[in-house]
Design brief:
Layout: E1 12-17, E2 21-27, E3 35-41, E4 47-53, H1 83-96, E5 101-104, E6 107-111, H2 122-128, H3 140-154, E7 158-164, H4 170-184, H5 192-208, E8 209-210, E9 218-219, E10 222-229, E11 235-243, H6 261-268, H7 301-304, H8 327-340, H9 345-362, E12 367-369, E13 373-375, H10 381-390, H11 394-400, E14 403-408, E15 411-416, H12 419-449, E16 457-465, H13 475-506, H14 519-526, H15 531-540, H16 546-556, E17 563-564, E18 572-576, E19 581-585, H17 589-594, H18 599-606, H19 611-616, H20 647-663, E20 666-673, H21 686-696, H22 698-707, E21 711-714, H23 715-722, H24 736-745, E22 754-756, E23 760-763, H25 767-925, H26 928-1065, H27 1068-1105, H28 1129-1143, H29 1156-1165, H30 1175-1179, H31 1196-1226, H32 1232-1265, H33 1270-1315, H34 1327-1384, H35 1390-1416, H36 1420-1449, H37 1454-1459, E24 1471-1475, E25 1481-1485, E26 1496-1497, H38 1503-1512, H39 1516-1519, H40 1526-1540, H41 1544-1564, H42 1569-1588, H43 1601-1605, H44 1614-1649, H45 1681-1701, H46 1706-1729, H47 1737-1756, H48 1769-1779, H49 1787-1793, H50 1799-1808, H51 1821-1835, E27 1880-1881
Parallel strand pairs: 6-20, 7-16, 7-20
Antiparallel strand pairs: 1-2, 2-3, 3-4, 5-6, 8-9, 10-11, 10-16, 12-13, 14-15, 17-18, 18-19, 21-23, 22-23, 24-25, 26-27
């Protein structure tokens, strides 16, 4: 096929463009006559047409790739490999898909996004671990994984070469690569070396990076870091090499650039007190250097501090700050990195002094003097600061900064330097100091990185500058471009080598590929008489200059094609590099190449008082000379005159070494691209990008690939995609290669366009596009054919449907018309009938309405008339009434007027008559007769008045007597009133008092109730306090024991260290003597331990027969040995054993920690220790007497028992004497001082006792004086109790002091035996004093605890007295029964029977006593139940003993049967009356089934055997045949027995052994799923049993009465329940891990790659790096995708069966599969998000179909209702998103559908979505933006929306719901398969 055939009308091509480099165009007509006509759209959106001619077919514009190939992960998968295709593909991926990584063959192209992306987290590292480079999307982690995997598999060193220009992201890429190696090459937790490797980045960035115009954090040096690995491929160390540090930046920066970051960081921290001596501020001290810089007022205070603008070396670029960078915070990060790398604060301080000295050196003012010399003012402040900081003399540095020494022959001259020379000398010194410091820091980092042993393999990461070209290029750019030439040559050779290896491996014929060889350019630079050689030669010339050197270049290098001279310049030269032609200015080449510093200045620095400055300039050359040559005596030359390598030579040598290193490794390439110069996020500048692509070698890779066979297909992939181009008869399913040959033979005629390899088909560039075109044409033709037939079928069906519909419509229309006619006729007849009826009805209605109207009118008229008449009549009547009243009123008014007139007339008349009479009387009064008449009347009146006066006098006398009587009565009246008032007051007072009495009565009742409440609350608080104290004491004991163990270990280590120092100091003879002493000491210890054991044995025997008064301690008491002690471990252990032997095993307060239940048990066992206070009890305390009735016929048995008791008593006395003898022999009686102290102590005790008696009598007398005062009596009782407690406490203190004295005496004797006279050796470190202080603290704590303990013992004493009285009564009753049976029984073996029965009854009685304190805490009903249970137990005992008598005595005589029983007879309900042959009635015992208590009894010595059988040796295949959880049931029944016998040590030992056994088994068989599931089920069953039988009502809801009776009585095992729960969680996590490991390799093949639906394959053309197509790793998938789904379902089914088989709880099974399904979802979704080839419609269909199998599996297993499938929602929604329609109308539906996916995941899938065919449209970028905008609303309230990958390590919370068992413990039987004969079912 000719290339011309592709240039037809409609073909899309690329044409050159000045703005976008290349622009897309379309041919408007076929290509012919070398004329090309295209149409394109310019930048303004205007369509333009262009027509141009080409000289040959090679000049035709490049063709565009099909849309299906746009955005591919690998550029080599493009059909057309050329510059525009590469540029456009990168632009689409970067701008549209936000993909910054792209493969180009073996090269990873990384574009700097200028934005933080969430693609570097631990989840991403885990996702790329174990995958080839072609498996997932391009990533720096994929390259790192490829290098790490090749190192593992090929056992060969690797290297990653990261290159690019400044600002392209080289440093970040290298940092992420090292982070990946630190993650996968380390242990589970990050080790120190990995932290150091990552911590070196801040330091190297601070001292080696600076701000440039292109990058804010540009690396100004090259570095090569080697990460060293062990044989297990764990990081063990690292090594760093640096190349070509840009020293000139220290003294000069271009505009808008900065110096190295460390200087600005140091200045930002100038306010720190520790840095004040560096003199980095204030600015006024450097005002002359401040070049008018104005500080930005918007800048924060953090960035303003430090005054960087005051230093000449920092202010030349006029850009001291970087936006968004906090130099102060970076400085603190740098300091932390220094500390982590082992550079302490002292070394840091010296580093900062040197850096500050460099800054101040730049501020030293040089003044020109007479033109030929220069001077420095002696008062220059900066000069003095430099001298102070660097520790050098001021005079010397002042002199040699302005002078230099010249050696001529044997004479030495000092010559002053000009101002320019002095300035250059100063700057050279600053550069040299910084370079030395840089090298020293790198060396220190390498020392910190250094591996402890020789590394096995290494991976190198090369972070080196890319090709650089500026307006003015100097020596630095020359060296950088020279290095890139070497690297490009190595890159070309490697790419060519890989290409040829691929062809050889595939066994195809190939021709040599011509590629650009830049060896001539390299020869121009480094060959003899090359540029570097001429530069070195010119540097050795005395008067060499840059101009003379460049003239030599013009003369010597003109023969090289790559060298040329500019036309308009005589000071520059041009070199044609592989990337571009670069012009270099010769100015400064010689000085930079020489890099000379005055020897005198170096000598000054060597003499510095600062250690670091002195070390930097002191040469340490340890190399041995290789040749010695004798020469005549000559003047001694300085080192500066000796041959010294120039900078160019050093760089060439280091570059050669680097190339050797790279050539010895397998290289991997990362090319970093800077998308724009404005540092804008995701903005692509094609012009800048194409420059870098040309410079970094990416296009060269493309050219080499295009020159060969870039497109490669496997036979299966090719056949699957292009089988549409052949007939079905050409397909050979058994031979895909033959099928592919037939397909290709029909398409391509030129055999050079393709090659058949061993496993692949290779195509030339453009052939895949041609085949895609043919495939599209064939599919289009097939589509047209299908459409033709489908349309014909659709139209035919449509016509038939329409015809059939028309007939049906006509039929129904005609019927409807007939029905309408008939309906019309019926309507007409009905209308006539209706009209007739309506008209008649209307007339009737009208008539009735008229009649009604007339009638109503008449009625209204008549009513109106009647009302009018009535109104008239009413008015007439009213008028009459009114007239009557008016007339009456008028008449009355006339009458009254007349009367008033008459009265007035009468009054006037009478007045007239009275005046006239008065006048007449006045005249008469003036006459004598009238006076006489008047006097006559007066005399009579006087007489009458005298008589009346006399009468009044008499009456007055009587009235005076009455008056006195009235006065007296008034006094009595006043008194009575006062009495009345007083009486009233008294009555009120009485009422008040009565009310007060009522109120006080109420208050009294209320206080009484409150007192009862307080008492109740007090009791409850005391109970809670006791419980709290018990818990705290138990915790304190545990912590004390742990502290004791830790202190013992610490003391042991200190003792070992002490002995080691002594052994090293002494000679060999002392070693031998010390060894002998040690042996003797060990023999003494053994003997002492033996004596202790014997003593313990004797004390145990004594405790059984004699009640000692050793004090008892609660379980909360702290061990006497638990205090802090610094004594050696051996002494502590011996002291502990001795102390325990002295106190006795029963003293649980020392050396042990026991529970409260154990305390009760131990205190109940020694009943004889209590002083009961009863004479009868005291009399019976020495021996046991059995009262036998007088009717006993055979008394010999009783006598034998009494003899036995006497013998035991005698043996007890003998043992007591032996104990006393041992105690007396161990006491220090030979000490006279001790005896004197004992006597004094006795006297003091007697005196104290006398005083106490007097005090008690006094108190008693006080109490007797007030017998009615209850408070006094109560106080006396409390005081007596406290006094008794104090006495007991003193007794215990005396015992403790005795013990301590004995221990001290024994220790003294022991030390004298071991050390002789040098006893002080024991306490040479003061450990005995510390131990004594600790012992005092312990004793103080013991005294406090004994105080509370004594009160509790007094309470229990009272309880025990009552219990003993009850037992005494029971004993008497049982003795009577025994005597009665003795009179009837046989004497076959009475002694044995009686002894065993008495011991059994005694143990039962004592056991009941031990439970008494618990029973007292219950109510009366509980006591009744307890007594009932006890009665039943006694009856069962009687029944069992009767059965024994029946078996032993048979049916003998009445006497024998009676004598064989210790009881007087059985209860009537247990006996039946049977008649013998003689007619005698005898009792017959019935045999009943045994009632088991649901527990197993075992000997503690057999405990480990039980654990071994049930845990260690139990196999899953055997356990599956048992009852599910049988080991748990058996172990719990053993625990119940320990609770039954109340043995806390036994239950603790059993539970600890169970826990340790399970841990050991799981650790040993952690890879066996059956074993882990078995013990997960059993641990949970044991946990459920502990809850079910704990006695807690919360767990007894579903228990039976029998199960509640079997609850634990004595122990609270809640803490062990927590331990078992933790173990269950641990085993559960192990089970999940095992399942995930088995499922993990099946997830991707079964969910993503399995294609069950035929015809939906979405394979697309692939490139050099397809799926699993890495050239370094070609591993086939461990599972075939077509079988993977079945295998996954099979594994899940096996998991389910295993869990169910061992009886796992259903809720736990649900949790397990919920976690597994989440892991499946996370793994598949993460893989999908990183694979572009999976994101298309057909794959979404396949994934959804595969997931439906998992959903069906959950339904089959009945797990779908528990929410297991909900964990698959993210991957299901991802599959639905791939299948969903993606138009603007579907934005809301897609957002609602994908509620389980994060925003990042949705956008990532849409960006990755690629049509599998040309007939499917791409997702528009506008649609993605709309989706993103819609999802931002949802993301505002969700923090996790930025997460891209699902966390595969996430685990749901583990819950173990309580699941009680319905199995009764008494029904559990031991299977024969378990050798557990030591267990006895009780």
């Amino acid at each position: 096929m000719s290339i011309r055939e592709l240039y037809v009308k409609g073909a899309r091509v690329w044409i050159p463009d000045s703005e976008q480099v290349w622009r897309c165009a379309e041919l408007t007509q076929d290509y012919k006559d070398r004329l090309v006509t295209v149409i394109y759209t310019d930048g303004q959106g205007v369509e333009r047409t262009n027509e141009f001619k080409v000289k040959s077919d090679e000049e035709l514009p490049p063709l565009r790739n099909p849309d299906i190939l746009i955005g591919e992960n690998d550029l080599t998968s493009l059909s057309y490999l050329h510059e525009p295709a590469v540029l456009y593909n990168l632009q689409v991926r970067f701008c549209n898909h936000n993909a910054i990584y792209t493969y180009c063959g073996i090269v990873l192209v990384a574009i700097n996004p200028y934005e933080e992306l969430p693609i570097y987290g631990p989840d991403t590292i885990g996702a790329y671990r174990g995958h080839s480079m072609g498996d997932l999307d391009p990533h720096i982690f994929a390259v790192a994984e490829e290098a790490f995997t090749q190192m593992e598999r090929d056992n060969k060193d690797q290297s990653i070469i990261v290159s690019g220009e400044s600002g392209a992201g080289k440093t970040v890429s290298a940092k992420y690569a090292m982070r990946y190696f630190a993650s996968v090459g380390g242990s589970d937790s990050e080790t120190q070396i990995e932290k150091k490797i990552l911590a070196s980045n801040p330091i190297m960035e601070a001292i080696g990076n600076a701000k440039t115009t292109r990058n804010d954090n540009s690396s100004r040096f090259g570095k090569y870091i080697e990460l060293d690995f062990t044989q297990k491929y764990n990081i063990m160390g690292a090594n760093m090499r640096t190349y070509l540090l840009e020293k000139s930046r220290v003294v000069f920066q271009a505009q808008d650039e900065r110096n190295y970051h460390i200087f600005y960081q140091l200045c930002s921290a100038s306010s720190d007190e520790k840095l004040k001596h560096l003199r980095l501020g204030p600015p006024e001290s450097f005002h002359y250097m401040n070049q008018g810089l104005q500080e930005d007022p918007k800048r924060s205070s953090k960035t303003r501090q430090g005054h960087q603008q005051t230093f000449h070396y920092l202010n030349q670029g006029h850009s001291p700050h970087i936006d968004g960078v906090d130099d102060a915070a970076d400085f603190q990060e740098t300091r932390r990195a220094f500390m982590l790398l082992g550079i302490n604060e002292a070394a840091q301080e010296q580093i900062f002094r040197i850096l500050a000295g460099i800054l101040h050196l730049g501020n030293v003012t040089l003044e020109e003097d007479n033109g030929d010399s220069s001077t420095i003012d002696s008062k220059d402040e900066s000069l003095h600061i430099v001298a102070e900081l660097l520790g050098i003399p001021v005079e010397d540095i002042q002199k040699w900064l302005c002078h230099r020494k010249i050696v001529s022959g044997r004479e030495v001259f000092t010559k002053p330097m000009t101002y320019t020379e002095a300035t250059f000398s100063r700057d050279a010194l600053a550069k040299h100091i910084y370079a030395k410091l840089f090298d020293w820091i790198v060396s220190q980092i390498n020392k910190c990185f250094a591996a402890p042993a020789k590394p096995f393999r290494f991976i190198g990461v090369l972070d080196i500058y890319g090709f650089e070209t500026f307006v003015i290029n100097s020596f630095e750019q020359f060296c950088i471009n020279y290095a890139n030439e070497k690297l490009q040559q190595q890159f070309n050779q490697h790419v060519f080598k890989l290409e040829q290896e691929e062809y050889v491996k595939e066994q195809i014929e190939w021709e040599f590929i011509n590629f650009y060889d830049n060896q001539p350019c390299i020869d121009l630079i480094e060959s003899k008489l090359g540029i570097l050689d001429l530069l070195d030669e010119e540097c050795r010339m005395p008067k060499g200059s840059d101009q003379s050197w460049v003239e030599k270049l013009y003369d010597k290098c003109k023969k090289w094609e790559h060298f040329s001279k500019p036309r308009l310049s005589n000071t520059s030269f041009l070199i044609a590099h592989f990337a571009d032609k670069v012009g270099y200015e010769c100015a400064g080449f010689l000085e930079k190449n020489r890099d000379t510093v005055s020897e005198e200045q170096i000598n000054i620095l060597k003499s510095s008082q600062i250690n670091l400055v002195h070390a930097l300039f002191t040469e340490k050359d340890h190399r041995a000379p290789t040749k010695v040559k004798v020469l005549p005596v000559a003047p001694v030359q300085s080192k500066s005159k000796q041959m010294k390598k120039t900078v160019g030579s050093q760089f060439r040598d280091s570059l050669s070494l680097l190339m050797l290193t790279l050539n010895s490794t397998t290289p991997h390439y990362v090319r970093c691209i800077k998308p724009n110069d404005d540092k804008m996020a995701f903005t692509f500048d094609p012009t800048r990008a194409i420059q870098q692509l040309r410079a970094c070698g990416v296009l060269e890779t493309v050219r080499i690939s295009a020159a060969g066979y870039p497109s490669r297909w496997t036979y299966n992939e090719f056949s699957s995609r292009y089988r549409v181009l052949c007939n079905s008869r050409d397909i050979k399913r058994n031979d895909m290669r033959l099928t592919c040959q037939k397909i290709i033979s029909n398409m391509i005629d030129d055999e050079d366009k393709f090659k058949f390899g061993r496993t692949k088909i290779f195509f030339r560039a453009g052939q895949v596009a041609y085949m895609e075109k043919l495939r599209a044409d064939r599919l289009s033709a097939c589509g047209v054919m299908i459409q033709k037939h489908v349309r014909m079928y659709l139209h035919r069906n449509r016509f038939r449907t329409m015809r059939k519909a028309a007939i049906v419509i006509q039929k129904y229309s005609r019927g409807m018309a007939a029905r309408r006619q008939a309906h019309f006729m019926r309507q007409t007849a009905a209308a006539i009938k209706i009209q007739a009826c309506v008209r008649g009805w209307v007339k009737r209605v009208q008539y009735r309405r008229l009649v009604y109207t007339v009638t109503q009118l008449q009625a209204y008229a008549r009513g109106k008339w009647a009302r009018q008449r009535f109104e008239h009549m009413r008015r007439v009547r009213a008028a009459i009434v009114i007239q009557k009243n008016v007339r009456a009123w008028l008449t009355k008014r006339r009458y009254l007027k007349a009367m008033r007139g008459i009265i007035t007339t009468q009054g006037l008349v009478r007045c007239f008559l009275a005046r006239r009479r008065l006048k007449k009387l006045k005249i008469e009064a003036k006459s004598v007769e009238h006076q006489k008449k008047l006097n006559k009347g007066l005399e009579n009146k006087i007489i009458s008045l005298q008589q009346k006066l006399t009468e009044l006098k008499n009456e007055n006398v009587h009235i005076k007597g009455y008056k006195e009587e009235i006065t007296n009565l008034k006094g009595h009246l006043v008194e009575m009133k006062a009495t009345e008032v007083q009486l009233k007051n008294s009555i009120n007072r009485v009422n008040e008092l009565e009310a007060r009495v009522v109120k006080l009565t109420e208050e009294l009742e209320m206080e009484r109730d409150e007192k009862m409440d307080v008492l109740t609350e007090k009791e409850r608080a005391e109970k809670e306090n006791r419980e709290l104290v018990e818990r705290l004491n138990a915790e304190n004991a545990r912590l004390t024991e742990e502290l004791s163990v830790a202190q013992r270990e610490e003391s042991k280590r200190e003792a070992e260290e002490l002995l080691r120092r002594k052994f090293e100091a002494e000679k060999q003879q002392l070693f031998m003597e010390n060894a002998d002493e040690k042996l003797a000491y060990q023999r003494l210890l053994k003997e002492f331990n033996r004596l202790e054991q014997k003593n313990d044995l004797l004390e145990e025997q004594l405790a059984k027969h004699k009640g000692n008064n050793a004090h008892k301690r609660t379980a909360s008491n702290v061990s006497n040995l638990s205090g802090a002690s610094d004594a050696p471990t051996e002494l502590v252990r011996d002291d502990a054993s001795e102390f325990s032997s002295i106190i006795g095993d029963d003293d649980i307060g020392y050396g042990s920690v026991r529970s409260r239940a154990s305390e009760m048990s131990d205190s109940s066992r020694n009943l004889e220790n209590i002083e009961w206070g009863s004479p009868s009890n005291k009399a019976n305390s020495s021996e046991i007497k059995i009262q036998v009735p007088e009717k006993v016929e055979d008394i010999t048995l009783v006598l034998q028992l009494q003899n036995k008791v006497r013998e035991l008593e005698k043996e007890r006395r003998t043992l007591a004497k032996q104990i006393d003898h041992l105690e007396s022999s161990s006491s220090p009686v030979d000490d006279p001082q001790h005896a004197q102290e004992l006597i004094r102590l006795q006297e003091l005790e007697m005196e104290n006792a006398k005083l106490k008696d007097d005090l008690n009598r006094l108190r008693k007398s006080i109490a007797d004086a007030e017998p009615q005062n209850n408070r006094v009596q109560e106080f006396m009782k409390q005081f007596e109790a406290l006094q008794d407690e104090l006495e007991r406490r003193r007794e215990e203190c005396i015992q403790l002091r005795t013990v301590l004295a004995n221990r001290a005496h024994d220790l003294r004797s022991l030390t004298q035996t071991s050390y002789g006279k040098d006893v002080d050796i024991v306490n040479e470190d003061g450990e005995l004093a510390l131990a004594y202080q600790t012992q005092k603290q312990v004793n103080r704590q013991l005294e406090e605890e004994l105080k509370a303990e004594k009160l509790r013992h007094r309470e229990t004493e009272t309880e025990y007295k009552g219990e003993l009285e009850r037992l005494r009564r029971d004993n008497e009753r049982q003795q009577k029964l025994l005597a009665q049976n003795l009179t009837k029984g046989d004497s076959s073996n009475p002694e044995t029977l009686l002894q065993s029965e008495i011991m059994r009854l005694t143990s039962e009685n004592l056991l009941s006593v031990s439970h008494k304190p618990l029973q007292q805490s219950q109510n009366l009903q509980g006591q009744v139940d307890s007594l009932t249970e006890q009665l039943k137990k006694y009856k069962r005992s009687l029944r069992a003993y009767a059965k024994k008598l029946k078996e032993a005595g048979g049916t003998g005589s009445k006497r024998s049967s009676a004598q064989g029983s210790p009881y007087g007879g059985d209860p009537p309900d247990l006996l039946d009356v049977a008649t013998t042959n003689e007619g005698e009635v005898l009792p017959v015992i019935r045999k009943k089934e045994r009632e088991y208590m649901g527990m197993f009894e075992y000997d503690r010595r057999e405990e480990m055997q039980i654990i071994r059988v049930l845990i260690y040796e139990l196999k899953p295949r055997v356990a599956v045949t048992f009852l599910p959880g049988l080991p748990a049931y058996i172990l719990f029944m053993c625990i119940r027995h320990t609770d039954h016998i109340n043995d806390d040590e036994k239950v603790r030992s059993l539970l600890n052994n169970i826990v340790n056994g399970v841990k050991r088994v799981i650790k040993k068989r952690h890879e066996d799923l059956d074993s882990t599931v078995l013990w997960l089920s059993n641990v949970l069953r044991l946990l459920h049993n502990l809850k079910q039988y704990s006695g807690d009502k919360a767990f007894q809801a579903e228990n039976t009465v029998k199960q509640n009776e079997q609850s634990l009585k004595n122990f609270d095992l809640s803490e062990y329940r927590q331990v078992l729960s933790d173990i269950a969680v641990w085993i559960y996590n192990g089970v999940i891990k095992l399942m995930e490991e088995k499922v993990q390799p099946l997830i991707v093949p079964s969910i993503l790659e399995h294609e069950a639906i035929a015809g939906l394959s979405g394979n697309k053309p692939g490139g050099m790096r397809g799926r699993a197509g890495s050239l370094a790793r070609e591993l086939e998938s461990p599972v075939e995708p077509q079988k993977a789904l079945d295998l996954l379902l099979k594994e899940l089914t096996q998991f389910y069966r295993t869990l169910a088989m061992f009886g796992t709880d259903p809720e736990l099974i649900t949790q397990v599969f919920r976690q597994i399904f989440y892991f499946i979802c996370a793994g598949s979704l993460n893989n999908l998000l990183l694979r572009k080839d999976m994101c298309h419609w057909s794959k979404g269909m396949q994934i959804r179909y595969n997931l439906s199998h998992l959903e069906q599996w959950t339904r089959d297993m009945r797990l779908h209702e528990s929410g297991v499938t909900d964990t698959l929602a993210p991957i299901i929604q991802a599959a639905q998103l791939l299948q969903a329609r993606k138009t603007d109308d579907d934005v809301h539906s897609i957002c609602d559908m994908c509620d389980k996916l994060t925003v990042s995941q949705i956008i990532k899938i849409l960006n990755l979505y690629t049509p599998a065919d040309e007939f499917e449209e791409r997702v528009p970028i506008t649609f993605i933006h709309k989706i993103q905008a819609k999802l931002q609303e949802r993301a505002e309230g969700e923090q996790a929306q930025a997460t891209l990958l699902m966390n595969t390590k996430f685990a749901f919370p583990v819950r173990f719901p309580f699941n009680p068992s319905s199995i009764h413990l008494e029904d559990v039987e031991l299977p024969d398969a378990l050798p557990l004969g030591m267990l006895k079912k009780v």
